[in-house]
Amino acid sequence: MHLDTEHNNAGKRAVILVSGGLDSTTVLAMARARGYRCYALSFDYGQRHRAELFAAERVCAALGDVEHKVVKLNLDSIGGSALTDTAIAVPEEETAGIPVTYVPARNTVFLSIALGWAEVLAADDIFIGVNAVDYSGYPDCRPEYVAAFQTMANLATRAGVEGQTLTIHTPLMHMGKGDIIRAGLALGVDYALTVSCYQATDDGLACGKCDACRLRREGFREAGVPDTTRYLS
Asked: 204 a known binding residue?
């Protein structure tokens, strides 16, 4: 893992994982501010909250990526998560342990495809908006997971074997949601374009009750700025 502090990346290519939510949109803005040429990558993976894909299109257009690629997967074919199996209800109360909204191996699958695209683009950098502070207990959002994946990436690729070091950037890893929102606003992010809700309507209306909505709402309170999210109630 690495966090740039200098804007010395002008012209460098980077793959940015963009879900259409608050965190990944902030990461895209951060990568652009650091001078990277951003290649945004989103996934149509069978998620029940498909409004996030429309949000990803909006934020990529607004922030000016070089290319936005949407890769179709069928993680709903294996299920195991409230986000990919409509028979499992999205919890509307806080739960202990790893919640049912955890999608098995999702970040590993997403990062693997990002790694492949980075090789094709001859890009040394991948950005992902994982967070160890407000991460809902997901095991694939922890610093040790990202560090392990980065080690694997540099062992498993032609680029790595030939001496091209790939870095996984996690600029939000140790930031609270309020700090993330303040950072994004300073970079001109319009959070009204984003969707975080696990069960948003097709029009992007948020339930206001799931974990993602609670974290988002609390983040705006912490940041001391109006919450522009469109809630059902």
From this structure: no
